[in-house]
Amino acid sequence: MQHALVVCVIAVNWAHVASQQCPVGLLMGLGDAICQQAIEKAGLKKHDVIRTVRQASFGLVIGGPLLFAWYRTLDKVIKGTGVIKALKSVAVDQMVMPPIFLTLFYSAIGLTSGLSPAEVVDKLKQNMKPTLITNYKIWPAAQVINFYFVPLQHRVLTANFVALFWNIYLSWMANKGRGSDKRETITPET
After folding, report:
1. Counting CB atoms within 10 angstroms of each CB, which of 1, 103, 158, 170 has the fewest?
2. Each residue of 102-116: b (16+ CB within 10 Å) or e?
3. Residue 10: which pLDDT band, with cuts at 50, 70 and 90?
4. What pTM, to 2 d.p., does this model score?
């Protein structure tokens, strides 16, 4: 009986984690697909399915678990209640998570796309500052809402609403200037 109970607890916990991770993977893949079709105008015949799977896989294997663990950690570490706790959480979140997440994202996407480690470092140098600037224009306000109004167990899913648009931007940033991609792109600023 005790063994069955342990199995049930593990299954419930795994289902809860998976319910947070799977949407991150799906939305990262959807963000890339939208980027290819709406921003890069690839058309269905030239859609790079491997690129979409690569980005979805990052969300499923790295992004989802990282964000799930991060929100739980923040909730335990940041003391206080109400608006003060939300503001502290946003401050810590925005100082710590964007550089880590973006470094992992650009590194994983670059390496799995065939870039050398030196090329990945160049991509990080090229993309990190503009991506962080854009991050700080979007995420602090979204995270204040997320940390103040949303219960812990729903924060990853709630952030995914904003993340869909963010994922389109990340896909564009990660893949712009590829030698094989001669399609004209439209910058987010235009």
Report:
1. 1
2. beebbbbbbeebebe
3. low
4. 0.82
